[in-house]
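yo

u said u wanted the structure for the complex thing, so here. seqs first:
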Amino acid sequence: MLHHPAGWVIVLSFIVAFLLTSIPLPAWLETFHPDWLCLVLIYWCIALPQRVGMGTAWLLGLLQDVARGALLGQHALALVVVAYIGLKLHRRLRLFPLWQQSLSVLVLLLIEQILVSWVSGISGYPPRDLGYLAPALGGMLAWPWVFILLRDLRQRFRVA
Amino acid sequence: MTLLTPDNRRPLFAATVNSFRLVLFALLSIGMMVADHRYHQLEAVRNVLATFIYPLQYVIQAPVKARYWLTENLASRTILLTENAELRRKQLFLNAELQKLTSLEAENRRLRTLLESSVNHQGERFLIAELLQVDFDPYRHQILLNRGARHGVHAGQPLLDPQGIIGQISEADALTSRAILITDPNHALPVQIVRTGMRTLALGAGNFQALQLSHILNSDDVRVGDVVVTSGLDGRFPQGYPVATVTQVEFDPTRPFARISARPSAQLDRLREVLLLVTDPADGAAPKAGARIAGPP
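structre next:
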């Protein structure tokens, strides 16, 4: 990734997303804590599908598993599936207006949350209510800002 | 034929997405999960990745640390003076208590030798660890500490705060370690009610304010306000440390057991520094009945 021009922008965006995902929010917001890493991953899958794809997603997922103490492969699996769908639909998603993109992102995030909590459920931590889906809503609301910010960054630094 | 843009010969549209790669990565993930969950074979991989993340976790901690530093350094003189006086008073009080405790301990030991009991309360050492991260998943109560195997931390080590038992180490990496709290839905802790000496298990329920005491019969004598301490029967947690206070007792004749909740003595949602009880790794590593993280309650 670093061999391409301005590849560091992508790496940096992932690092920042990683930090944001791990930083605790105030209690009333914590339920809706968006998965920033997943949002940034979706953006790069849509914008640069030839550079960011399932391999990147898998590696990021593994790192997140270690950071969260989850089963090794739990987030990796979810992110790979999200990246796959993002890559599949990237041409369509690019053309969507922002609000419609947000809705598609909501679906992607829901898929991620459901996959992660399935694995949690199998390994002995079944979710007790639908609260585990709330981060997807937070992610949907955060998507327009992530999109605009990353698009400006990509254009300014000519990441291609 | 793929279309190429004229300037840099990059495909205008990425090649069709390879579904084979999805299957490959998915199978790889599932394989790793099985290996991790069933056979605990991936500790090395986890350790390597954890080393990568360690600096990031330190960065995350930086703003919090900065805030504490600022509040400590910019506190006004009067506040410091009052705090100082307060602490001095407390110290005096604690010293007096301590004197009493020393004599009590000596007496206790004497009585125990008379009774030829093997309970041993001396020589417990502690290691102080700081919290690096709290798991924000509401169904798992885990914390990340800034001490790892390099500092002598190992799985199964009990964790305390000044008020009571917090949990135990579930895995130790080189520089960090992860601990499971007693309120985690998958944690069970053998305890004893001080007033009656009754033994039971304190099960986590995914709530920082409540533990469930299991297998207490409707006819048993449990009251609100009863203090619950570790029983030490698991051979992992030391005996007699405060765990919780009973807050709710519900005797329901239609159920086989009473429903009893207790509030943890430790302030689990306000942790910053914790005490690690230094134990023998060989002793703690072997799973013992009761204390080991049980299946879903």
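The first strand of chain B starts at residue 125 and ends at 134. Residues 43-120 of chain B form one domain.
cya
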